[in-house]
Amino acid sequence: MDLILIPGFWLDAASWNDVVPLLEEQGHRTHPVTLPGLDSVDADRSRIGLREHIDAVVRLVDGFDEPVVLVGHSGGGAIAHGVADRRPDRIARIVYVDSGPLADGQAINDGLAVVDGEIPLPMWDEFDDADLVDLDDGLRTAFRARAVPQPAAVATDPIVLHDERRYDVPITVIACEFPSAVLQEYLAADAPFTRELAQVRQVDYVDLPTGHWPQFTKPVQLGQAIASAIR
Question: Which InterPro entries match (predicted)?
Answer without folding.
Answer: AB_hydrolase_1, AB_hydrolase_fold, Sec-Metab_Biosynth_Hydrolase
